[in-house]
Amino acid sequence: HGNAENRGSAHYRYDAFARVLNKAGVNGKIFTYDYRGFGDSVADRYGYDSDPEECLAEDARQVLKFTGIDPSKTILFGHSLGTVVTVRLALELAELGTPPAAIVLE
Q: Greater confidence, 87 or 5?
């Protein structure tokens, strides 16, 4: 989601994305998360003062790990500030030999 949003305020975006995927014959699950310290996140903003970009990247890595889904079977979606996080995660996965199936940047 964008810098001033949380996953609750941006649900319409994820619903639309799911409809597009379903129309294209792609079935699966959509996982969303809030940056630490925002929305439903129970974590505080620890580390943001020292390296906010690394904190956002680590959050994305942990969410992907939590899903247990093979990264090569994922479609990463990033909106606004999330596009930076999405591109970074996709590059890291590619360097590890498991690039995502696709990325969508909005």
A: 87
